[in-house]
């Protein structure tokens, strides 16, 4: 029977094409889907049907998904790390230029000249006014990058090639991300040290309980005069009241962000975009392809790659008969699962077990068919969250 994939946002066709139509049905309405593919749709736990085995986020941030509830229900949540990083990096380049030159004000001014019909007169008027739109160059200015993952590291590299000095802050930097980072990026030991020494500051960290409101009054009141803050990460990371106060106080010269809010719209010192950081053909294709491939590999093989709540686990298929088991990460469950198989004379050919936080996940390849009764005995074990028979032995 074809598997059903529920899409809750527009997902690029290139990604959906990775799910062959003879095996997958894809629609924006299903009552009992096998998996969900989405982008920024705000998904509530109560809206996830019991049938759902996995959720794929075509994008980086998973703050729109109730990840903790998914973990408790044994549902892996996948994202597409790095797949839209270049798109965001390019928009940050635009943000830096919008923050350093009178581009928007200049364009708005030119629009006011529509009533002048004589070219020479128009030229004379604008040449007299262009001094109002003078900016300054980025070369030699200091950019602070908060969060040096997929996007932050690309932004840092780009700023270096533009002749900027770059300071970075990331207390949770992965080894892989550290390898990607240019040695010219200087390290700030604290966020306040970074905020106090930069002309431009750009945010590239996820919104988590620990980062909600992280950019607060204390940091914003310590910025150098003329500082420009860019936020292409998430609105919730910046304390809005503190931001407005810092802009009113004058030291923070400009706020450029991908997340409009009523209190910020219409201010001359704020430039807002409608969450278009990842809105390029390339990023949408990359994210959708990655998310679709990961969901397919999970549904067909139980493999897990790029999950934000489950351990990564990939086991090559040696037999058509595979069990996947999600259980609480506590002793003795694995032994009990294997005893049930042994009691039924089912030989295990290959297996992998990995854990992450409270979750343990197992792939067990078996030589002969496991009956419904065997599966039910496994499901009945204390601490077992779900058991799935993937494929058949025949
Ligand atoms: N505007 C957009 O359309 C758009 C597009 C993509 C991503 N994003 C946002 O950007 C965020 C980053 O994306 P990414 O792909 O670079 O993710 P990533 O996971 O590759 O990098 C995030 C980095 O932030 C670091 N970090 C975590 N807590 C931190 C803290 N307290 N201080 C400093 N650094 C911290 C992590 O260690 C990691 O290196 C996403 O979570 C998402 O919210 C926005
Ligand atoms: O899907 C989008 O357009 C936005 C994605 C972006 O916010 C992300 O976190 O990857």
UniProtKB/TrEMBL annotation:
Its EC number is 1.1.1.399, 1.1.1.95. PROSITE patterns: ACT (PS51671), D_2_HYDROXYACID_DH_1 (PS00065). GO terms for molecular function: NAD binding; phosphoglycerate dehydrogenase activity. It is an enzyme of class 1 (oxidoreductase). Coiled coil: none annotated. It catalyses: (R)-2-hydroxyglutarate + NAD(+) = 2-oxoglutarate + NADH + H(+); (2R)-3-phosphoglycerate + NAD(+) = 3-phosphooxypyruvate + NADH + H(+). Pathway: Amino-acid biosynthesis; L-serine biosynthesis; L-serine from 3-phospho-D-glycerate: step 1/3. Catalyzes the reversible oxidation of 3-phospho-D-glycerate to 3-phosphonooxypyruvate, the first step of the phosphorylated L-serine biosynthesis pathway. Also catalyzes the reversible oxidation of 2-hydroxyglutarate to 2-oxoglutarate. This is D-3-phosphoglycerate dehydrogenase. It comes from Pseudohalioglobus lutimaris. The lineage of its organism: Bacteria, Pseudomonadati, Pseudomonadota, Gammaproteobacteria, Cellvibrionales.
């Amino acid at each position: 029977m074809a598997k059903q994939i529920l899409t809750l946002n527009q997902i690029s066709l290139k990604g959906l094409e990775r799910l062959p139509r003879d095996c997958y049905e894809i629609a924006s309405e299903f009552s009992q889907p096998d998996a969900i593919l989405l982008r920024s749709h705000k998904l509530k736990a109560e809206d996830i049907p019991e049938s759902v085995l996995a959720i794929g986020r075509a994008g980086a941030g998973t703050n729109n998904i109730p990840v903790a509830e998914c973990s408790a229900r044994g549902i892996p949540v996948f994202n597409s790390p790095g797949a839209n990083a270049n798109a965001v990096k390019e928009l940050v380049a635009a943000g830096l230029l919008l923050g350093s030159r009178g581009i928007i004000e200049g364009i708005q001014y030119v629009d006011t000249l529509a009533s002048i019909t004589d070219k020479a007169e128009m030229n004379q008027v604008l040449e007299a006014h262009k001094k109002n739109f003078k900016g300054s160059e980025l070369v030699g200015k200091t950019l602070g990058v908060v969060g040096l993952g997929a996007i932050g590291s690309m932004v840092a590299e780009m700023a270096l090639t533009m002749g900027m000095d770059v300071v970075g802050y990331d207390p949770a930097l992965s080894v892989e991300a550290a390898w990607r980072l240019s040695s010219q990026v200087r390290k700030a030991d604290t966020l306040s040290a970074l905020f106090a020494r930069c002309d431009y500051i750009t945010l590239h960290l996820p919104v988590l309980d620990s980062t909600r409101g992280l950019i607060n009054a204390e940091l914003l009141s310590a910025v150098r005069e003329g500082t420009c803050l860019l936020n292409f990460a998430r609105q919730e990371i910046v304390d809005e009241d503190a931001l407005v106060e810092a802009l009113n106080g004058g030291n923070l010269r400009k706020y450029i962000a991908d997340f409009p809010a009523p209190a910020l719209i219409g201010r001359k010192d704020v430039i807002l975009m409608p969450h278009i950081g990842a809105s390029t053909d390339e990023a949408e294709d990359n994210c959708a392809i990655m998310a679709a491939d990961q969901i397919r590999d999970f549904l067909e093989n139980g493999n897990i790659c790029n999950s934000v709540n489950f351990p990564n686990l990939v086991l090559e298929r040696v037999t058509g008969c595979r069990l996947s088991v999600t259980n609480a990460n506590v002793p003795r469950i694995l032994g009990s699962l294997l005893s049930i198989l042994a009691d039924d004379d089912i030989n295990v050919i290959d297996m992998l077990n990995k854990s992450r936080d409270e979750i343990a996940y197992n792939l067990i390849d078996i030589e002969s068919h496991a009956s419904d009764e065997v599966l039910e005995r496994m499901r009945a074990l204390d601490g077992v969250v779900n058991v799935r028979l993937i494929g058949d032995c025949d």
